[in-house]
Amino acid sequence: MSEYSKVTVAALAITPGPGGTITFLHQQRGPYAGHWLLPGGKVDPGESVPAAACREAGEEAGVDLKPDDMTLTGVYEMLGQWSGGSYHLIMFCFLAAGEHTVPAGWQGDQVGEVVQVPADSLTPHPTVMRILNDAGVTVYDQADIEAGLERDGITMLRLAAGLPA
């Protein structure tokens, strides 16, 4: 049985980098392995959701984010299948305030390459494309997003838009 076979609560951080870039990482494990994602992962027991997004961004991208500097941009339910079976994620998405630089030579925890690039210089996973669009950070083509979700057999529902602080 996969660690993702139960409902998994997770959080991610849209992390702006220098010069209008966004921090992406090449995922090496989990349902979206092999794709460009945003820093994020599971919420630990007793951990606040914004704190989880900050912790994951630190572990994966080496950036130091603070929960008070995070703005919720959306909550999503994602269901699909992968080689490890089915998965069901509830993903809380945050936009970090300010610019954050990944340390030179950084090697993230359980991820491949970590880059800070303009969003249009790579093609992230279709769930990330939608999350970035909904956050007002990018304008990926909606037809491309829908085609990618359908191709990968993903049901992605936006449960909530960004909420006031």
Q: Biggest sheet: strands side by side, in what order?
A: 4-1-6-5-8
Major sheet: size, sense and barrel closure?
5 strands, mixed
Instruction: Give the low-confidence spans.
Output: none
Beta fraction of the residues?
Answer: 35-45%
Number of strands: 8
The CA-CA distance between the termini, in Å, is 38 Å
Helix content: 10-25%
Task: Give the overall shape, derived from the CA principal axes.
Answer: globular
Write the H/E string, N to C: EEEEHEEEHHE
Total helical segments: 3
Structural class: alpha+beta
What does this structure look like?
- The chain has 165 residues and is of the alpha+beta class.
- The protein is 19% helix and 35% strand.
- It is built from three helices and eight strands.
- It has helices at 49-61, 126-134, 142-151, and strands at residues 7-14, 22-27, 36-37, 40-42, 70-82, 85-96, 111-117, 155-161.
- Strands 4-1-6-5-8 form a five-stranded mixed sheet, sandwiched between helices. A three-stranded antiparallel sheet has the order 3-2-7, with no helix packed on it.
- A hairpin with an 8-residue loop joins strand 2 and strand 3 (36-37).
- The longest helix is centred in the middle third of the chain and has 13 residues, at 49-61.
- The chain is globular, with a radius of gyration of 15 Å.
- It starts with 6 loop residues before the first strand and ends with a strand.
- The mean pLDDT is 93.
